[in-house]
């Protein structure tokens, strides 16, 4: 029997009380063959659309799956996906115009998505009830496919995590074998990578992982406690680094992120992961004026390397600049450090500093005098101001270690 004959038989069966069981049995065999032979859900949608004689949409929000057969306008696909997504989140959901029937995709009573029959040239209300049998079979087949996708993702996640955990634990791995392992997981490290560390907000881990996968395919991702680590493969070009910055910006609604420098050498990726976590800690411990992009470059980057190789030098820089101010603030509950940070950020403009911290200009002048007395450095002097700025950066880096202790 040709595909056209099969489709005609099923369409006829929808209105014929004698043939439905045979047609449904044929459909069941075809749609599960498609799933078991590892076809994507586009094929399931096509088979179902042919069986019911109308366009069909398959939507599984948590996997970002939205297939419509025959192919439909993007706006319609988006409206259907939004409708099902809102339903999954328990939000009020207006049924899009043209939806004739719907079958849930559910696992142990938990809704995961839906299959929807849409209005079409051969679809009408009278045949909608018969079509539901086909939609329910397709929903069961889709659930089987979803389970396979989730299992594959879990296995890949475990393999990603094993590799990243070894790097984060400081294990010495042969660079060539490391690159080969990563390539088998879809991550090409031929041109190196940037490491990423993210601390997602409550309930946002999945959103962070999906955003990384969409923006930089091939990334290796691992969940470690409340944090998420990733290696982002790059091609060595400036555009790739710009994409990392854009990714960090896109992740802001979901949590705090820190990225390392671009490591061209595979053997340095363990250090890159440590550096990314350090950047995250600095951003998290600092005020709102310190963002990840500033910490990812410039003087901070030099201090990171110094902290890794000669931590005593960073401590000495801190002690010789702002340590006395930090201790004074802790003992007297004052704001000398915060005032200094704002003053330096505003390029020594006292009036702007007073406006930013909601204090009188004379108050700012008094605090700057105290800073001069305690540190021995003059915030109004260019060279001393530069040293104080370095001291504040050292303070942020060392605050991270003190907080961890």
TrEMBL record:
It comes from the Bacteria. Residues 336-394 form the PucR C-terminal helix-turn-helix domain. InterPro entries: CdaR-like_regulators, CdaR_GGDEF, PucR_C-HTH_dom, PucR_C-HTH_sf. It holds the Pfam family HTH_30. Residues 174-282 form the CdaR GGDEF-like domain. Belongs to the CdaR family. PANTHER family: CARBOHYDRATE DIACID REGULATOR, DNA-BINDING TRANSCRIPTIONAL ACTIVATOR ADER. This is Helix-turn-helix domain-containing protein. It comes from Conexibacter stalactiti. The lineage of its organism: Bacteria, Bacillati, Actinomycetota, Thermoleophilia, Solirubrobacterales.
């Amino acid at each position: 029997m040709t595909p056209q004959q099969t489709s005609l038989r099923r369409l006829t069966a929808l209105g014929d009380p004698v043939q439905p069981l045979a047609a449904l049995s044929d459909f069941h065999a075809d749609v599960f063959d498609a799933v078991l032979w590892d076809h994507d859900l586009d094929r399931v949608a096509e088979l179902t659309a042919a069986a019911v004689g109308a366009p069909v949409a398959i939507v599984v929000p948590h996997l970002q799956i939205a297939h419509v057969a025959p192919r439909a306008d993007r706006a319609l696909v988006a409206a259907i996906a939004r409708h099902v997504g809102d339903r999954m989140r328990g939000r009020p959901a207006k049924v899009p115009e043209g939806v004739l029937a719907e079958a849930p995709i559910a696992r142990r009573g938990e809704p995961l998505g839906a299959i929807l029959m849409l209005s079409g040239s051969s679809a009408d209300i009278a045949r909608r009830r018969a079509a539901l049998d086909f939609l329910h079979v397709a929903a069961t087949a889709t659930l089987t496919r979803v389970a396979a996708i989730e299992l594959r993702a879990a296995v890949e996640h475990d393999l990603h995590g094993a590799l990243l955990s070894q790097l984060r634990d400081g294990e010495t791995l042969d660079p060539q074998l490391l690159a080969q392992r990563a390539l088998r997981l879809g991550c090409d490290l031929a041109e190196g990578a940037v490491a990423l560390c993210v601390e997602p907000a409550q309930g946002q881990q999945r959103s962070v992982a999906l955003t990384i996968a969409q923006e930089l395919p091939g990334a290796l991702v691992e969940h470690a406690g409340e944090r998420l680590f990733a290696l982002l493969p790059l091609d060595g070009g400036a555009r790739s680094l710009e994409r990392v910055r854009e990714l960090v910006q896109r992740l802001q609604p979901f949590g705090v992120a820190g990225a390392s420098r671009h490591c061209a050498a595979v053997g340095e990726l363990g250090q890159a992961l440590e550096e990314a976590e350090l950047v995250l800690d600095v951003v998290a411990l600092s005020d709102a004026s310190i963002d990840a992009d500033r910490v990812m470059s410039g003087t901070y980057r030099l201090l990171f390397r110094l902290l890794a190789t000669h931590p005593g030098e960073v401590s000495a820089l801190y002690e010789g600049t702002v340590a006395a101010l930090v201790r004074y603030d802790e003992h007297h509950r004052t704001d000398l450090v915060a005032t200094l940070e704002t003053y330096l950020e505003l390029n020594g403009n006292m009036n702007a500093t007073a406006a930013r911290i909601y204090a009188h200009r004379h108050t700012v002048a008094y605090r700057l005098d105290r800073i001069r007395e305690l540190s021995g450095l003059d915030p109004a002097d260019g060279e001393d101001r530069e040293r104080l700025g370095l001291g504040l950066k050292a303070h942020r880096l060392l605050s991270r270690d003190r907080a961890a202790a």
